[in-house]
Amino acid sequence: MRIDIHTHIMPGKMPNWVKKFGYGDFIHLEHRNCKACMMKGDKMFRVVEENCFDAGVRISEMDDTNISVQVLSTIPVLFNYWAKPADGLETARFFNDHIAETVSKYPKRFIGIGTLPLQDIDASIREAERCIKELHFPGFEIGSNVNADNLSHTRFFPLFEALEKMDAALFVHPWDMMGHAQIEKYWLPWLVSMPAETSRAICSMIFGGVFEKFPKLRVAFAHGGGSFPATIGRIEHGFNVRPDLVAVDNQVNPREYLGHFWIDSLVHDPLVMKFILDVVGEDKICLGSDYPFPLGELKPGSLIDTMTFDTGVKRKLFSENALRWLSLSSAGFMS
Fold this sequence. Notes:
Elements: E1 3-9, H1 17-21, E2 27-32, E3 35-40, E4 43-48, H2 55-64, E5 69-74, H3 85-105, E6 110-112, H4 121-133, E7 139-143, E8 145-146, E9 149-150, H5 157-165, E10 169-173, H6 188-207, H7 210-213, E11 218-221, H8 228-241, H9 243-246, E12 262-264, H10 270-279, E13 285-286, H11 302-306, H12 311-326
Parallel strand pairs: 1-5, 5-6, 7-10, 10-11, 11-12, 12-13
Antiparallel strand pairs: 2-3, 3-4, 8-9
Helix pairs in contact: 3-4, 4-5
């Protein structure tokens, strides 16, 4: 069995929230001349293929690439953390209901994780409870920062505490990348800032004491942990030589947290795959492709297939680690 923990989906039909709410750059989808256009307000944001919203096309492509199960999460541009809290909650509920509906139609092929209106922590906790109890989601996707607040900010602690009690998994995805406006040329926000943004989230959760305060919280990070695995030596060195700046909220060496959290396998390079196996460990890496977007792995799982791992390691990477992260069993899924 192959479980892809990093895939994104959106509804084929969405309200025009700009018109409804009267402000902002909410995304909606317009179907024009056989193209599906993501509109940001009244401007073209991106043209997407049917596999971004059509479950039937998605399943056909999963079959073509031997993917048994996809974990569905919303596209980060749809987080809408910048919106008014009530509006953010409305859009989050819409996307969560759509994912739940898709899973209910194809329960052997999809697992859904929800999105939360993180600009309002109380509303996020209520929506998380609804998603767990009514929609039967095993976890949630959140951004690497929320309106420039790092995930170490204490305002998130009640949410982390609630999610830990709900036994919910977290998938942290980079978004709203730092320095975006200064490096737009050459697609650098996606090539440079995204890996840094993931490391920002990991370091914030480590140094902010999130893993210490909520040790049972199961967290996975996108894109192979971004730049964090390759810079752990520098991060640890900074912790050792300037504890007055680094260890102000948590005195545990950051290297101690390797093996505490999960990362996906989206690194595009066999040498880097070997490296993250050495650094993070074979028990904490899950197949993740960023389907259906071009910066992802175009044939999910192909990098792992090319590696000379024994079957036990491949089994962990393809499915067992994902099931442990989500706290699910393989029963009920296609084998």
